[in-house]
Amino acid sequence: MFKCIFREGNVYKCLLNGEWIESKTGQRDQIFSPTDGALVGEVQAISKEEANHFVLSAQAAQKAWAKVPVTERAAVVHKAAEILEREKETIADILVKEIAKNKKSALSEIMRTADLMHFTAEEGKRVTGESLSSDVFPGYSEKKLLIVNRVPLGVVLCISPFNYPVNLAASKIAPALVAGNSVVFKPPTQGAIAALYLARVFCEAGVPPGVLNVLTGQGREIGDYLVSHSGINMIAFTGSSKVGKHIATLAGMKPLLLELGGKDAAIVLPDADIQAAAKHIVAGAFSYSGQRCTAVKRILIIESVANPLIDALLPLVKKLTVGKPENNADITPLISNAAADYVQELIDDAIGKGAKLLTGNQREKNLMYPTIFDSVTREMRLAWEEPFGPVLPIMRVKNANEAIQIANESEYGLQTSVFTSNIDQAFEVAEKLEVGTVQINSKTERGPDHFPFMGVKSSGLGTQGIRYSIEAMSRSKAIVLNFK
Ligand code: NAP
Ligand code: G3P
Questions:
Q1: In this structure, are 467 and 358 located in the same domain?
Q2: How far is CA 417 from CA 268, 281, 465, in A?
Q3: Residues in the active site (predicted)?
Q4: 167 alpha carbon – ligand 2 mean position (Å)
Q5: Do residues 188 and 284 both lie within one domain?
Q6: Whose CA is nearest to atom 42 of ligand 1?
């Protein structure tokens, strides 16, 4: 079925100039399943010297790609979406093994990505410029006609995180390609195999050699080299705030699209529909075991309705199944033991400082049971740090203003949910929140993918979301026609 042979056994190669290649160093990274430690496969550990070739090849291919009519560029992206859909079961099984995402969520990520790619292909055809005439400016006598078009930036470096190795790769690659850029793609090491299956999809769809180059290797080894490379014209990164800020210090004049960490709050006001709020909060806090940047990561609850909300939350949390991703458990093993250790640190700190454990704090290696604390205070790390795991702190507040104050004190500013039945109050609270997006009466979430998605403060820079990404990966170019 696939023309592009990208692996021998479970040793996966990298895509350079239309060829699937191995590192000349012979170095590889082994990828183990977070669920049972089984070897999922091996990926190339590309060296800095080799990474240079991935960039130079993309640079060389980009000029011709930019000249390809956008309808043809869009057709390649549409074709890739069709192939991705055809391969959904195979790639979903890889996600299950490689990042312990349950099968249902894995299939959902893939289908969502195919939809994103189709939408991006169409949106790419609608990116237009404008024309202006000089005589609209007061007192201007010369006759000028301005024509503005959007042109590609050149080579886009796409770097994606482990939790959506397909969707958060395609959400960068597809807009970059349809806008006429070439792409150097560095996937997460844990998630690289799923990302290489996506790369193969683009390869089979007919992306010309060099227009998409995909290299694997530890970000800490080759990341700085790629980010600083003069052949890179734009960087689209999704990942931790720590790494995002580091990239920003190296990027110089390169335009950046950074989607980083979050500590999204759910503010529940006294007139909220408590049962509905509880359902949204549990789904928002515990899907993919809390390993989402937009997960609900704290509840700011008005004291008067705290107990009713807790009474509504606990039965829902106790219904969550815990176990293996292949069995579609709701709560599955975290990406690594180190990730689980960090979550445990936050749990232990909260307990040590007097938080009241309502459920959870049970662990089997990197499988952590859903955990909720009541009476979390500002002095606890869990109030402010991003666990990226299934743990949810409840902070009791006196009123909406105190909730807004605590929400705004966060170093993060990704999203906040506000639950209330009073729409005027919802907008009044929303206007005061220093975040990218406020969700009224729903969980915090990025989708649908054509919506703008952005963070402020430590949560990011720039706006992702199909049209917004295409605009971020292109620039205006003006031509002025002077006439008598
Ligand atoms: P991460 O550790 O920051 O890694 C993200 C990507 O950056 C990976 O591909 C990683 O490669 C690479 N990388 C690491 N060091 C680098 C460097 N010095 N230069 C360039 N690239 C480098 O994040 P993660 O663990 O994959 O994802 C979890 C974090 O990402 C959480 O904080 C979460 O909130 C955030 N996130 C945000 C969003 C959003 O849309 N805002 C979405 C998902 C996740 P390696 O894998 O080889 O280290
Ligand atoms: O952490 C990944 C981030 O992009 C969340 O996406 O759609 O699950 O809110 P979503």
A1: no
A2: 8, 9, 19
A3: 259
A4: 9
A5: no
A6: 293
Angle between the N-to-C axes of helices 103-124 and 70-86, in degrees from 0 to 180, rounded to the nearest 10? 170
In a domain, residue 455? The reply is no
pTM across the whole model: 0.97
Question: Comparing C-alpha atoms, which of 217, 228, 185, 209 is closest to residue 29?
Answer: 217
Give burial (CB, 10 Å; 0-12/13-18/19+) of 214: buried
> Could you tell me whether strands 356-359 and 453-454 are parallel, antiparallel, or unpaired per DSSP bridges?
unpaired
Place of tokens 């091996």: 42
Out of 109, 240, 246, 291, mutate this one to test ligand 1's pocket (max ligand atoms within 8 Å of CB): namely 240
pLDDT in tens, the chain (484 residues): 445 679 999 999 999 999 999 999 999 999 999 999 999 999 999 999 999 999 999 999 999 999 999 999 999 999 999 999 999 999 999 999 999 999 999 999 999 999 999 999 999 999 999 999 999 999 888 899 999 999 999 999 999 999 999 999 999 999 999 999 999 999 999 999 999 999 999 999 999 999 999 999 999 999 999 999 999 999 999 999 999 999 999 999 999 999 999 999 999 999 999 999 999 999 999 999 999 999 999 999 999 999 999 999 999 999 999 999 999 999 999 999 999 999 999 999 999 999 999 999 999 999 999 999 999 999 999 999 999 999 999 999 999 999 999 999 999 999 999 999 999 999 999 999 999 999 999 999 998 999 999 999 999 999 999 999 999 999 999 999 999 8
**Residues 241 and 290 occupy one common structural domain:** no
Verify that 283 and 168 share a domain, yes or no: no
Residues with CB under 6 A from ligand 1: 159-163, 168, 186-189, 218-220, 223-224, 227, 238-240, 243, 246-247, 259-262, 293, 386, 388, 455, 460
As given in the structure block, the two tokens for residue 201 are 């999809």
Q: Indicate if 178 and 285 belong to the same structural domain.
A: no
**Site to substitute for ligand 2 among 163, 444, 450, most atoms within 8 A of C-beta:** 163
Please report, for the domain that includes residue 475, its CATH number: 3.40.605.10
Are 298 and 208 contained in the same domain? no
122 as an active site residue: the answer is no
Shared-domain flag, residues 113 and 170: yes
Lining ligand 2 with CB less than 6 A are: 163-164, 292-294, 445-447
Q: What is the tally of structural domains in the chain?
A: 2
Quote the domain boundaries for residue 95. 7-260+460-479
**Together in a domain, 254 and 272:** no
- Among candidate residues 50, 204, 259, 386, the one labeled active-site is 259
